[in-house]
Amino acid sequence: MNTSKHIPFFYSSLSLCLFYTTAIYAEPITQEPTVSDTVTNSLPHATPLNDTSHNMKQWIDSSQRSMSDSVHNIGEYLDQSLTKDEDEDEEKLTNRSYLRIRHRAIYSHRGKLENDFKVYFKLDLPHVKRDWKLILDSEPSDYDSLESKQRGIASGSKTKAGDTIGGFRLQDAQFGNWTSDFDIGIKIKLPLDPFTKASLSRVDNISQNWTTQFDQELFYYHSKGVGSLTQMSGFYALTPDHKNIFRTTTSAQYLQDGDKWELVQQLNIYQRATDKDLFEYSIGISADTNEIKEVTNYWISTEWKRRMYKHWLYLAARPQLEFPRDYNYRANLGIMIELEMFFSKNRKIDELGRYIPKPVKQRTIADHNSR
């Protein structure tokens, strides 16, 4: 593979997402001459550079605010259109709609350069009763492989154009120590493809140091049939402040479309090095049940994720070493670079947060005390 042909495109494509988004909603950069400008004209390499940097920062901030306001206005308009209740306390019903734009580039020694662009749009409807939320996802990942889901590299279904789904979600309904979500909607394409999804989750403290979480998800698309995802996770705090966390995850997925079970075992260590930096170390194995060689991949990886600017721009780099069945288990060294942008007026995004989950009762008490 001629790597030199791809290196310029590899780096330029990472900045394309940021440039394109900010350029569309950008306000013109204006700079009115001042007295200080007249004085510093004789020093072309000093203050003017600082002024340019300051103006560029203002331009980026205004562009991000403009996009965030647009997202908020869409959510607010739909919320008011679907239901109006004059008795509600507006200050307690904050619209937390958000837009996420992600660009990912993956290069491996035995593979090829892959670029993935994904948009996720979540509309919050605070006035709608019983916590129903409007969801819109441009590339749902329900039928992605279990390994890509568990490793956080699911890119969404790309077999056909127009796979965007829209629907409603009944969120965080509680049944004793269980929490649940329920989705219903359609794929926005012709012919329309209705879907439904239900998930259950339970968290238990089995000892002073160990916490377990059980997740069960069932989903159905008219075009592909039934899918099931079962996951059992264990969490252990390596430090008292929970900045370093160990996690073990065992999961199984069945897809009627492929008529097979996929299995994944993964071990992770999360290390919150600074307020802006997160490191993640991972090792795992994946397998399926419809091949003679059941093991599909072994891998080890390290990811560094950094908050580049405020709470809406993140950059991640993940070098990884794999031994996939597709390459007859020969070593395949690669790297993934990811750029994420978030646009929300009222939601504070923390992509670096890794937490040990709490049981329902503890969450209820914590929410009550925070009010």
Q: Overview of this structure, please?
A:
The protein is of the alpha+beta class and 371 residues long. Helix content is 21%, strand content 43%. The chain contains five helices and 14 strands. The protein is globular, with a radius of gyration of 23 Å. α1 packs across α3. The chain has helices at residues 7-25, 35-40, 47-82, 146-150, 360-370; strands at residues 98-108, 114-123, 132-137, 165-175, 178-187, 193-205, 210-221, 225-237, 244-255, 260-271, 277-288, 295-309, 313-322, 332-343. It has a single domain (17-370), classed as Beta Barrel (Porin), CATH 2.40.160.40. The model is unreliable at 1-44 and 157-162 (pLDDT under 50). Strands 1-2-3-4-5-6-7-8-9-10-11-12-13-14 form a 14-stranded antiparallel barrel.
Share of residues in helices: 10-25%
Largest sheet: 14 strands, antiparallel, barrel
Net shape: globular
Helix and strand content put the structural class at alpha+beta
Distance between the termini: 58 Å
What do the pLDDT scores average to? 79
Q: Please report the first level of CATH classification, the CATH class.
A: Mainly Beta
Helices, by number, come to 5
Share in β-strands: 35-45%
Instruction: Note the run of SSEs as H and E.
Output: HHHEEEHEEEEEEEEEEEH
Radius of gyration: 23 Å
- Sheet with the most strands: spatial strand order: 1-2-3-4-5-6-7-8-9-10-11-12-13-14
Q: Spans of 5+ residues with little confidence (pLDDT < 50)?
A: 1-44, 157-162
Number of strands: 14
CATH topology value? Porin
